[in-house]
């Protein structure tokens, strides 16, 4: 079925106005206060780079085409019978003075909010799309993770430290997928699916699961608005495994150091599993009793109407995700059930507040230092602040879904705009 398109110019203009007003009606401030902008512009040009130099590493970024807030740059190479994996993560923390206007504003926002046709960033774009973004050819400060992986993709060693880096290539999913398909991809790009598949196999062994639900995106096409359904591509899932690997190792570092903040989620209760099993039977695609639910969901890609209903039903298995902060005593429940292991958000600091603190805690612990007093003081408030940011984001999405349509608009009321799917969605997106 073709995407519904708003074909009347006046209605299109009316819809554009409604979409632009959604964040404001949800209580989301799109503009930054003058003192925040002033601080961001100042630190963008005065913040020094780290002394450690890793500019010889041929890092590359891979994001949706057109992205400017580039959090991650990766390097992959074979190393004996295993792999060497370096992951540079944008160091926004170095630009933010504790207690300053920029810091206080980021705690108010919590995360970047994606609305129909635009987004409201966590940090001013002079930083998030400029001085802190890992843009191609630019010297940048980063938290650089270095991992050794064995032949099966298991992590055998890890470290993280601040260093200066320079991304050599700015890649996008469509372009890399084309190179992989036509055989022109270099070895580093060919290793992304190789390592990604190994990590997915390890996920199945842990009993992890993910929802490959397609995104519904509002796009403007030749002055009109259209709803497009976009399936998650294999390359995105393989690339997301690099992020998940890093988050799992960050969690282990903090657990061993007895300080930090985890992304946790309880296992679904037996009643939820029983209900889901009955729903799959009613939808004509029964979940076999001897098959782990993660493996069952891996085969449901949302390409058929029945699949979409199953994916919607499965969301009940992925409830209760939140953040657990600790300092001095490790919490009893450390596991993110959908991942099947302890996990932390650590790879999207330009778009998510909590990652900034996870990176600072991990870097300090690996270096043999205690995290700073300012970092430790912030940890207890982060779960509530991230919940607030998530609620604002949800309100924007819900208002996009339930807004009043222009009278002549044939667009379905389920209009909503999702964030770029450079991160694989699990539950309410614990790795996004």
Q: How would you sum up this structure, described in words?
A:
A four-stranded antiparallel beta sheet has the order 2-3-6-7. The longest helix is centred in the middle third of the chain and has 24 residues, at 234-257. It is an alpha+beta fold and 432 residues long. Helix 6 (187-206) crosses helix 7 (234-257). The chain has one domain (9-268, 318-402). Helices cover 39% and strands 19% of the residues.
Strand line-up in the sheet with most strands: 2-3-6-7
Tally the beta strands. Answer: 14
- Give the ordered list of helices and strands: HHEEEHEEHEEEHHEEHEHHHEEEHHH
Structural class: alpha+beta
In terms of DSSP E residues, the strand content is 15-25%
User: What is the overall pLDDT average?
Assistant: 86
Task: Report the major sheet.
Answer: 4 strands, antiparallel
Low-confidence stretches: 1-8, 402-432
- Counting H and I runs of at least 4 residues, what is the number of helices? 13
State the separation between the terminal residues, measured CA to CA.
30 Å
Radius of gyration: 22 Å
Total tally of structural domains = 1
What share of the residues lie within helices? 25-40%
Backbone shape: globular
Characteristics of this structure?
single chain; 432 residues; alpha+beta; 4-stranded antiparallel beta sheet; two-stranded parallel sheet; 13 helices; globular; disordered C terminus
């Amino acid at each position: 079925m073709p995407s519904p398109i708003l074909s009347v110019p006046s209605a299109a203009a009316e819809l554009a106005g409604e979409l632009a007003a959604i964040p404001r009606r949800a209580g989301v401030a799109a503009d930054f206060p003058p003192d925040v902008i002033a601080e961001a512009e100042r630190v963008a040009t005065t913040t020094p780079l780290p002394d450690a130099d890793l500019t010889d590493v041929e890092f590359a970024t891979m994001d949706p085409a057109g992205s400017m807030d580039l959090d991650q740059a990766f390097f992959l190479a074979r190393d004996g019978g295993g792999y060497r994996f370096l992951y540079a993560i944008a160091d926004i923390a170095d630009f933010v003075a504790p207690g300053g206007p920029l810091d206080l504003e980021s705690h108010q926002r919590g995360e970047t909010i994606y609305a129909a046709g635009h987004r409201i960033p966590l940090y001013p774009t002079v930083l998030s799309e400029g001085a802190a973004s890992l843009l191609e050819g630019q010297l940048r400060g980063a938290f650089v993770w270095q991992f050794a992986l064995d032949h099966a993709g298991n992590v055998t060693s890890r470290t993280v430290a601040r260093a200066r880096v320079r991304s050599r290539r700015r890649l996008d999913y469509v372009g890399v997928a084309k190179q992989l398909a036509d055989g022109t991809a270099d070895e580093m790009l060919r290793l992304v699916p190789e390592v990604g598949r190994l990590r997915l196999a390890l996920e199945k062994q842990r009993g992890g699961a993910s929802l490959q639900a397609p995104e519904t995106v509002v796009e403007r096409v030749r002055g009109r608005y259209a709803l497009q359904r976009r399936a998650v591509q294999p390359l995105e899932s393989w690339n997301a495994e690099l992020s998940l690997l890093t988050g799992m190792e960050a969690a282990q570092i903090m657990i061993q150091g007895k300080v930090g903040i985890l992304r946790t989620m309880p296992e679904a209760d037996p009643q939820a599993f029983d209900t889901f099993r009955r729903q799959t039977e009613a939808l004509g695609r029964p979940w076999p009793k001897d098959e782990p639910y993660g493996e069952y969901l891996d085969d449901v890609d949302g390409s058929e109407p029945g699949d979409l209903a199953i994916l919607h039903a499965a969301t009940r298995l992925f409830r209760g995700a939140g953040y657990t902060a600790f300092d001095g005593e490790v919490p009893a429940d450390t596991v993110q059930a959908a991942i099947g292991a302890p996990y932390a958000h650590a790879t999207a600091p330009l778009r998510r507040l909590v990652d900034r603190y996870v990176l600072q805690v991990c870097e300090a612990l690996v270096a043999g230092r205690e995290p700073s007093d300012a970092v430790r003081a912030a940890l207890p408030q982060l779960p509530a602040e991230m919940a607030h940011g998530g609620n604002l984001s949800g309100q924007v999405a819900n208002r996009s879904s339930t807004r009043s349509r222009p009278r002549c608009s044939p667009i379905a009321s389920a209009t909503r705009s999702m964030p770029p799917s450079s991160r694989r969605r699990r539950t309410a997106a614990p790795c996004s």
